[in-house]
Amino acid sequence: MFEKFSEIPKNLSPPAILAFSFAILIFIGSVLLYLPFAHVGKLSYLNSLFTATSAVCVTGLTVVDTGTKFTFWGQVIIVFLIQLGGLGLMTVSTVVLLLLGKSPSIKGRLVLQNSLTYSPTKDIFSLVKIILLFTFATELIGALILGAYWHRFYPLSKAIFYGIFHAISAFCNAGFSLFTTNLEEFSANYTIVLTIASLLILGGLGFLVIYEIFLCLYAKKTHFSLHTKLTLITTLYLILGGTALFFFFEKANVLKGFSLTYKIINSFFQAVTPRTAGFNTLPIAHLTDATLFLLIILMFIGASPGSCGGGIKTTTFAVFLSFIKNKLQGREKVHILFRTLPNETVQRAITVATLSGVLVAICTILLLLTQRYGIPHSSENSSFLEYLFEIASAFGTVGLSMGKTPTLNCWGKITLSLLMFIGRVGPLTVAHLVKIEKVTPPYQYS
């Protein structure tokens, strides 16, 4: 199987191959989860397909309870899909080929670069090795901490599995949990909360950022690239700003009556998780409308390029804001961190942000049509914000939910599945597959 990646068809572009690899992995996962040994009772193929899509696209949205509906082997399949989806099938395939003493083709390297958003080719294998080493080392440390805590309540084997499952789910920004209420019962256990939050942040920074940090620490690299600086600064601002706003919006609601430490730590956690994974320590459906809209914005922004998360990405958000700022100041060029950005970079950021906004709007309309057709807004249980929340969660491959996803009909589940796929591979990748023909006008207006 892996040797086939050294013979990638020449007529397929790297973005097409990347999307195709995720689609194949989703199909294989859906078939495995549909088999009787993987679940308890009846499970429709659509629900198994939705679960596989959510796992491979490291989202975390679920239509059935992961901890009770799937058997041990079903849960093993899900965590493998999360790991493969987080790292990327091309990354894993490259490692296997290297272990077999083979080398991927030139196109295989280009596909790998596309999946990692990494440009130079000469250090691509060093990057892959560091990615694998850092990923497994971080997940192992997280699993040991989580497993040691859960061993207080469960047998050793179950505690170890729970630790491994949640560590992988957190680092890969998936948000799948084996607990029915996610992490709500651990909201006062700061070891669990901070461990999961740390894994989420590290998994959401992006492999290129991790690679540069590694070079700075061990290879005596003297400075970070603009990409890494922008990612780290934007991530810090989003976490601090999100924490402060969540604390302010919820101090008289779900945080009322708790200690200051509890309020700060859970506000911090709920500011981290919307941009990466669907873990929650507080009941999402009980949050205020202002907080829910804040979470929608954070989910739309998402994680960083080359990471396991989705959304428009932190760097795109930063460039887009810089574009607006520079235009208001009357500048023709976009300047950020004492650097002038190429027009191509700026145009790409604008395109991604605009395309993503249009996509979220269209999918929200589709979901409202398929779930509430003919029902007036003035009726009881108006659900506009709830459905917009689910759409933003799917696009950002986050997984936070207000409880609407399990109640969706088949068209709603298909809509979210497609959106999770687009959110994982990227809207520009999907747009590339459409192959819109470029038309040159015969004349120009003076």
Automatic annotation (TrEMBL):
GO cellular component: plasma membrane
Annotated GO MF terms: potassium:chloride symporter activity
TM helices/strands, residue ranges: 12-37, 43-64, 76-100, 124-147, 159-180, 192-218, 230-249, 292-324, 345-369
Protein origin, superkingdom: Bacteria
InterPro entries, sorted: Cat_transpt, TrkH
Localisation per UniProt entry: Cell membrane
Entry membrane topology: Multi-pass membrane protein
Keyword tags: Cell membrane, Ion transport, Membrane, Potassium, Potassium transport, Transmembrane, Transmembrane helix, Transport
Chief location: membrane
PANTHER family (alphabetical): KTR SYSTEM POTASSIUM UPTAKE PROTEIN B, TRK SYSTEM POTASSIUM UPTAKE PROTEIN TRKG-RELATED
Name of the protein: ATPase
Organism from which the protein derives: Desulfofervidus auxilii
Lineage of the species this protein comes from: Bacteria, Pseudomonadati, Thermodesulfobacteriota, Candidatus Desulfofervidia, Candidatus Desulfofervidales
